[in-house]
Amino acid sequence: MVNTQENLHIRLEETQALDRDCTTLSRHVLQQLNSFSPDAQDISALMNRIALAGKLIARRLTRAGLVEDALGFTGTVNVQGESVKKMDIYANDVFISVFKQSGLVCRLASEEMEKPYYIPENCPVGRYTLLYDPLDGSSNLDINLNVGSIFSIRQQEGNDEDGSAQDLLQSGRKQIAAGYILYGPSTMLVYSIGTGVHAFTLDPSLGEFILANENIKTPDHGPIYSVNEGNFWQWDDSMRDYIRYVHRHEGYTARYGGALVGDFHRILYQGGVFLYPGTVKKPEGKLRLLYESAPMAYLIEQAGGRASTGTEEILDVVANELHQRTPLVIGSKEDVALVESFIKEQARISHQS
Q: What's the rounded Cα separation, in Å, for the pair 210 and 200?
């Protein structure tokens, strides 16, 4: 009798393991939506297209050092005034190519393009817009460090007949999905459609993203602070005071890799705070609201954390322009609140004086 029970228990564990191993991205999306409605199938199809773009970019990156013209700069600058890497252009083109065939997406907006890219043949039916950073942290490419892609999906509002994409200039709470793909030792896709944060690992032998972690929760407090301290003397007093605080207190450790996706991924799992504040000369910061800050804010809130400009919730910020920048303080609730407390204190002192 004991042996029978043990065998049953073993078979049950094997079945559960097999079931977990077979949970692909598309299946998981439909399970999260608990529906096979046309809208649910649209979201599943969109996520599959994002996954395909990730696979193509990952494949190129694994051979980047071997393929001619894969690494280095193009010699041009993008709309942000930043030097463009060859892989930036490749990754941007991959997303366009993949979604041209989708029939779902009418527009794509990328930090690499001054204006949205329209797919007229999709527009009568496709009511979605993809906003994305095709290759975040591309300065890491030539030294073989982590890079990533960030994405956000919004439903188109109105017909956008003048091509101004004004409906995209809304708060991050209008996002219906967001996530990122991390190209590292393994390729991971992390996403949310408002039902928690879920991570998938690409199995190259299957060509599928397989569920790795479900319902990820960020700790309320973590030991990590992630910031480019090389900008220390360019910040205002509040940011410098915060850095001095963590230097003087035990339990903090600095981790900064130069790619938002990689640094955020660590914070998501281990807790802590990622900072990219504005400087005295450029208080608006560096990160793009629609392509970087808002998608990550959507994820961290779903994981139980917070994202702030330092004075306002990121998801409440309404963009004035497509490529608007914003300061970013993101991570564990307690750690974000601590950074905000230094900003509030500096504001109080300035007001008194």
A: 5
CA angle 133, 325, 151 (to 5 degrees): 25
Cβ atoms < 10 Å from Cβ of 35: 13
Of 205 and 300, which is predicted with more confidence? 300
pLDDT of residue 168: 92
Kindly state the tokens that stand for 351.
Answer: 């007001």
Query: How many Å apart are CA 165 and CA 131, to the nearest integer?
Result: 12
The whole-angstrom separation of Cα 324 and Cα 92 is 19
Query: Given a cut of 70, is residue 8 above it in pLDDT?
Result: no
Nearest C-alpha neighbor of 175 from the set 191, 158, 159, 199: 191
- The CA radius of gyration of the chain, in Å to the nearest whole number, is 21
Q: Give how far the C-alpha of residue 219 lies from the chain's centroid of Cα atoms, to the nearest Å.
A: 19
Could you tell me where the DSSP H helices lie in the chain? 2-21, 25-33, 38-62, 86-100, 237-248, 260-270, 294-302, 333-352
In this predicted structure, what is the pLDDT of residue 73?
47
Closest to 203 measured CA to CA, from 58, 334, 339, 343: 58
Q: Are 57 and 67 in contact (CB under 8 A)?
A: no
* Cα–Cα dist 236/240, whole Å: 7
Least confident of 20-29, 271-280, 307-316: 20-29
Q: Are 289 and 309 in contact (CB under 8 A)?
A: no
What residues are paired with 24 via a beta bridge?
Answer: 210
CA 65, 66, 71, 75 torsion-angle sign:
positive
Please determine, for residue 192, whether its predicted confidence score (pLDDT) is greater than 90.
Answer: yes
For the chain, the residue count is: 353
**Which of 146, 178, 137 has its CA nearest to residue 315?**
178
Beta bridge partners of 254: 225
